[in-house]
Amino acid sequence: MLIYFRALGESFRFAVNALRNNKTRTFLSLMGVTVGIFSIIGVLAAVDSLEKDIKGSLSSLDSNSMIICHISFGPSEVPRWKRERFPLVTYDDYQNLQRNLPGLGAINYSMNVAAQKVSYEGTVIESVRIDNATEGLYDIERLEFEDGRFFNERESVNGAPVAVIGSILRDNLFGVGVNPVGKQVKTLSRKFTIIGVLKKEGINAFGDSKDEKLVVPVNIIRRIYGDNNRSTFPTITIIPEEGGDPDELYALTEQKMRQGRSIKSGDDSNFFINRLSGFADAIDGIISILTLVGWGIGGFSLLVGGFGIANIMFVSVKERTNLIGIQKALGAKRRFILFQFLFESILLSIFGGLIGLIMVQVVVWLLDVSKIAGDFEFVLSFDNIFLGLFTTFVIGIIAGIVPAIGASKLDPVEAIRTGM
């Protein structure tokens, strides 16, 4: 057994010396692998980071959430001309479901409105996103607060002039760290009393954040914009009660919506119930495609790098034919010659892979330090590092096995004569 280890050690030292004595050739050979590993691991790291950010953004929502509105978030068999005539979901639809839907955990009705100007004692912030909701938003999005609270059912139903503010908007309006609860801001030509400050959450994968928003009761928005304004894109969001069956809730929701809208049996529904779980599945599909694209981009570079290493190994065998003949004449076994060249190929490939991984880490560090991507966090995981090194190891074996076998099979007399 010791003899095998010594033979492996000798083969390894021969390979290292061969690479050290041909620095320029070594450098040029490993560049193909470097570019390939940089491409693959760079794309995989970006995809993993994107997936983590998206799923982190969705983590505040129940995966069983359903969004009811007049459009479908995915492909639909309903003709476009028919979808365009679907009525908006209304506050009456919301109240119908709230009162009559069994197994309901929480429900929220909201509308989309244009950004507004918000002011406080001479300080004016332009283009502030005004979110609006009913009291159910608190449970659906699992809101957390630095100070104060969310508006309750009575304030929501009455459309009370109260608001919840994001932490960054709070800092810009009132000063960093100031507790604004009880103070009044002006927007939508009305004054709103701040009753709560949301915990900072950062920008999510969709470029959205509550940190710079103001959240007010939806009934205030209804008074201003009306109930049949298609630009407001009203939606109803529901989640099942804890331990409830999402599929059963889906069926009951469709039933109650059809009853509330007096849709006859056999007629198509004029609304869509979009499931968040389906959206998550679609995201997984996109992530899988991006991963395949990453492998495709890097795969071509790795292929070129592998051919480059194989070519260099054939040249190396040709240059050292005389030395191979002498080694075999002095008693070197075939496996010694084979391992000598195979180790050289593997080392070339792994060195190239290590440089590629270092380049990815440097890029990740620069993006993190420069904040070019904002709050988006790039992560180079251990799994990707291991995958990169394993890939280079396999490429090294594949690229070097044929030249190594050819070198090990050389006849010592012919090899010495050819070398001379």
UniProtKB/TrEMBL annotation:
**The ABC3 transporter permease C-terminal domain covers which part of the protein?**
297-412
Q: Name one Pfam family in it.
A: MacB_PCD
**Domain MacB-like periplasmic core: residue ranges:** 26-251
- Residue ranges crossing the lipid bilayer per the database entry: 27-47, 292-315, 336-365, 385-407
> Primary place of residence?
membrane
* Bilayer topology: Multi-pass membrane protein
Q: Where in the cell is it found?
A: Cell membrane
One term of GO molecular function: transmembrane transporter activity
Which keywords fit this entry according to its UniProt record?
Cell membrane, Membrane, Transmembrane, Transmembrane helix
Q: Which InterPro entries match?
A: ABC3_permease_C (IPR003838), MacB_PCD (IPR025857), Macrolide_Exporter_MacB (IPR050250)
GO CC aspect terms: plasma membrane
Domain of life according to the entry = Bacteria
Q: What does the sequence similarity comment in the record state about its family?
A: Belongs to the ABC-4 integral membrane protein family.
The protein here is known as ABC transporter permease
The species this protein belongs to is Dokdonia donghaensis DSW-1
